[in-house]
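Key idea: predict the complex, not the pieces.
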Amino acid sequence: MKFKKWGIHGICALLGMLLLQPVNSADKIKVGVLHSLSGTMAISETTLKDTVLMMVEEQNKAGGLLGKELEAVVVDPASNWPLFAEKMRELIEVHDVDVIFGCWTSVSRKSVLPVVEELNGLLFYPVQYEGEESSKNVFYTGAAPNQQAIPAVDYLMNDVGAERWVLAGTDYVYPRTTNKILEAYLKQKGVADKDIMINYTPFGHSDWQTIVSDIKAFGSAGKKTAVVSTINGDANVPFYKELGNQGLSAEDIPVVAFSVGEEELLGIDTGPLVGHLAAWNYFMSAESEENDKFIEAWHAFIGNEDRVTNDPMEATYIGFKMWAAAVEKAGTTDVDAVRLAMYGLEVPNLTGGVAVMNTNHHLSKPVLIGEVQDDGQFEIVWSTDDVVKGDAWTDWLPESSKIVANWTAPVNCGNFNTETKECSGQNY
Amino acid sequence: MKRILVLVVFASIILHGLHAADDAGLDDSLQSSFGLLVSKSFSDKAAAIRDIAASGNPHSIRVLSSLLDGNLYFHKKNQSMILVSATTTKEYEIFDLLTGKLIETRSKKELRKRYKKVVINNKLRGLLNEKLATLTIFSEDKSTRLTSVRNILKTLNPSAVKLLRDAITQETDQDVKELMRICIAVFDARSEIPEIQLAAINTLSGSLYPEARTVLEQLKTTQFDRTGADSPLLQAVNSSLQAIELKAGVYKQVENIFFGLSLGSVLLLAAVGLAITFGVMGVINMAHGEMLMLGAYTTFVVQQLMPNSIEYSLFVAIPAAFVVTGLAGIGIERGIIRYLYGRPLETLLATFGLSLVLQQLVRSVFSPLNRSVVTPQWMSGSFEFNPVLSLTYNRMYIVVFALLVLFGLLWLLKKTSFGLQLRAVTQNRVMAKAMGIRTDRVDALAFGLGSGIAGIGGVALSQLTNVGPNLGQAYIVDSFMVVVFGGVGNLWGTFFGAMILGIANKFLEPVMGAVFAKILVLVFIILFIQKYPRGMFALKGRAAEG
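Result:
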């Protein structure tokens, strides 16, 4: 008890001291970076921190924003979810940043949500996620399920002719929600219960023998079988290794993954994986001028020609460009003004098209399907004809289909029920 | 002016003609197919593949198989086809596709600049396999013929089956012949003529090929609708299916046992080092997982040092990992643990802190990203007993390796003077000291031994899972579980503990999923420890009191 009191006093005193410090960087615009640099998520998030730093550097070379220089403030939430919230508070209250680029896992995003809303911050979230959320203070530049999972299933169904489905995922919120949506979608498309197999594994699962053998057995029933994988991060390496070793080739049973990109393939010998699929909004192999420039800049910034680019990096790129354009448009870094300036804003994406920010805080982006090649890159084998508008609330779950998000008047709500014409009151 | 222009055009046409004549033996059809192959559209490429397969050109097998292997490139400017093969990781040799002559050697970057790969997708891969199957059915090589028949079995194209009927009369090899028989039977099982159908169904009895089972199951439903329950055809289908299911069920169990043994071996490799440090010396070493990690990283470093002989890298990595982690272990014992003997709580905290330090150290030195450790060729793939039972090589080697390590360790403890001293010290430190044993030295060496063995385990793990800073964390709990369950201080306990847990896990997993299976095993261990606190192989007598 005594300790707690002292702790609070101490923190107050410390905060006071920090706040009283003369603010000599008022002529700088501060960009917060909230990505884990240590712990389990460091593997994915470090790259995004570097991407933001690169964008800041480029923007400064081009003369900064509103005549001011940009300054990146990097903090390390260390893959620790509650720490994300604390670091977010530190960024906004202590460092007084104007915008934050950060988070990877859904649980870290959920953890910072109350803070960023309470302090009216501005967060750009660059990773594909399960949807069912739209906060006033967050812009989601990664894919919603209808920009990744649903088109991928459509591709497998129509172009590959898959009739039996294995939904394999890691046991946490993103795969569970995505698989719930996919299961509902598949059933509406007339797929029978017995043709769907759902399987969850713990984080970092490394012994895939039984599951791969089950998939093999499930796939040998005469109907074309496809695996939709929401297996997260590390666990993919042993999974794909086992697939290769047990001789499951992509022609027999293609695996489409939502969490495997160029960066994840770096740790794998891709020989046996050739032909397996991934669905993203961006691949490093996309042919466009912007992409060539981006890759060149990235290699120059990081000083290593072997580094790859991936989808969350493109989402960070789009988010940053969009924020910069919105600040120019609004003429200020004030969160509310910038937020309003964001809607309808268009910036070029890296695949040769244009990304548009919608009023539900999600982007319109193209969806691409790529096949793994033996050099660890993806070859784009299919893409949507047009951009797909990100849907915050999925149309395929009965409880979500009637909910929309729209942050402009008259709705002004991230969770608006079109039947009862009411905002749930929940902020996200 | 006009005349000159005409002349130029004319001359260029002649020159072109001469150029074409140079490539003697190359017929135009192949060249026009190449024109389609460089197209962006996959349907153009499919048409090209069909043309090439039908052309009867002697080069067609080479063209199609190099396309399948992803070695076919074309020149970005003049679109001529080339064949590329990687000599090392950095250099690529470029051959002329048709003559097979070496044109030049290029680095990866230059290759990308000048040439573009002919990209194929899964559909084309399927088509290529199908076309190659009919082209290679009369190949000299047995394994080529086997894959060829297998690919025909997948698609069951009538013309290919017709070809198969010719081929089976010339076939001399029994395995290929058997597969051909099955393949024809699967095709005939859908025949309109009842006699042929019945014969085919009887041939398929007990065949483990998934296609055989599929066709029989389809027949079962369609036939039942058509003729009712007691047609002779349906009875034949049922008995064939029963034979298949019986066999498949047996092999499924064999497979499960193998999976269990291999999981058990992984647990054993992870835990056996701990069995020395915790089991024999009684030190709660939370940094044990990081010793596994160091071993795995040693493998990575060794592979970086000898990039051209990856096949042998593991044989270098095993002793290297033992030395590196062994020395690290001795360092830890001398630097930290020796001050904490008899204070388990402090040891636990100190080693836990150490494990965090080591993790972050690895992050700083090697980056937080996972490192790619290459699996040598001889460890990838699987040994196929029959279509339902195939055992992967990496797991088989690891089972053998785990046993070798265990027996090596047993020999060391039971037959060498160091082993004798170690056992003496753990049984009665004071008495051992009185007998002239330098207990300090024995402690350090024993800790080094335990850590070194963990390093060897890490080499094995690098072949199965990610080599990253968190590698150790994933195995530390499992390791303690195995040692405690097996009985502290007994290597055989560790062995049986690991195997029982592995097999139990693998038999539960298909029934209730990976997550729940793991929970159940944990609950079982808790209950077991309640009843037998000293584990399966408890030490008895005076040794137990130590």
